[in-house]
Amino acid sequence: MDIQDATEHAINAWYSAENLPEAKTDGAKTWGTFLPVGEPDRFKAACSDRGVTYIQGLAQALTLWLDNHPSPTAPLVSQPVVRVIVANQKGGVGKTFISSGMAQALAEAGHRVLLVDYDPQGHLTAELGFEDVMYEDDVETLLMHMDGTAKGHIGDLLVALDHERFGERLHLLPASDDAFLRDVALSKVSFSEAALERALEPLEADYDVIIIDGPPSLGLNMDTALYYVRRRDGELADRSGVITPVWANKASHRAFRLLQSQKDDLCRKGRIQVDYLGLVVNAYDSRRGKLVKANKDQWELSTSPAVLAAIGDLKEGREAADGEIPLLEYAPDSEHAQAMRDLAKELAV
N or C: which end of the chain has fewer CB within 10 A? Predict the structure, then answer.
């Protein structure tokens, strides 16, 4: 629970509590949090009426709250599968590179991972060597499972990356050639925001992490993916959510603001919470000049969402994609590969 919420609960309970014992405050470390407008003055007045100091009143309130909410001796209830969308409405910033690399690193570390190619262009599918799958005839697609026209099980669409490094733990849900129609098709689906969740739900028990390579556009297609990674009831904060790759340029700042605006609008209208897990400054090269460094510094000064990593403009990622070989298989000891392992550790798996 957030300390601000806990403090508000504690103070509200303190107002109605009677005959509270004096709390020990000697040697206590200082701490701070925000309270609603007007609450500090109201609480100080109540402390004065009770004849206790402000510090003693806070100590009583928090002691009472902690006594009534002891630290659990049993583990937290089982958490939903971790769901992450790598999203930016601007193309060419490295969404596919980051999605694929993180998924590979997680699978290498022992986690069961599903990669979803949600970009109609299908770059992820092609770069992992499964381009032919996109154009197979008489095969059901993700869109068909989203709009309710599919007859089979969605698991039949999956393909496995059979490299020994991933231990049969890394699967891909490939793109399909009808994905460009998704916005139009979903506009006819009841409660379309939940269409992706309905489609992927039968697979969730089989995976620890589901990573979505998002589309380079805004609209209904993006809404369904953002809704899918929302914080579910009982789920810990910052467990599932959005990671945005950016470049150190002005265009990325504008694109990020547009995506953030759509996310905030969806959260407000849908009364949901979508957590921002962080930013990744991709393809950074300080030799490109002062403006590039200044833009990188501007990203890093942002406290929310924070920059998780700055990844250099190195050749291994491009070479792996061109060769249709997973990065961690092509160059396992490269800087790019290590950056993906470091990013994977940021996820609350």
Answer: N
Question: 223 with 266: CB under 8 angstroms?
Answer: yes
Which string of DSSP letters, residue by residue, matches 85-151? EE--SSTTSSHHHHHHHHHHHHHHTT--EEEEE--TT-HHHHHTT-GGGGG-TT---HHHHHHT---
Find out whether 14 and 61 touch, Cβ atoms under 8 Å.
yes
Tell me how far apart the alpha carbons of residues 95 and 93 are, in angstroms, rounded to a whole number. Answer: 6
Closest-CA residue to 202 (of 128, 271, 274, 152): 152
Which pLDDT tens digit goes with each residue over 205-260? 999 999 999 988 888 889 999 999 999 988 888 899 999 998 778 788 888 889 89
Report whether pLDDT(204) > 60: yes
Q: What pLDDT, in 10s, does the model give residues 17-73?
A: 888 889 988 877 777 788 888 889 999 999 999 999 999 999 999 999 988 887 766
Q: Across residues 74-99, what is the average pLDDT?
A: 85
CA-atom Rg of the chain in angstroms: 24
pLDDT at 302: 67
pTM for this structure?
0.77
3-state helix, strand, coil split of the chain in percent (to 5) is 50, 10, 40
Phi-psi label, residue 148: left if phi above 0, alpha if psi -120 to 50, beta otherwise: left
For residues 224-261, b (16+ Cβ closer than 10 Å) or e, as one string?
Answer: bbbbbbbbeeebeeebbbbbbbbbbbeebeebbeebee
Sheet containing 307-312: order of strands: 159-160, 170-173, 113-117, 209-213, 82-86, 241-246, 276-284, 307-312
Nearest in space to 227 (alpha carbons), one of 257, 258, 187, 269 = 269
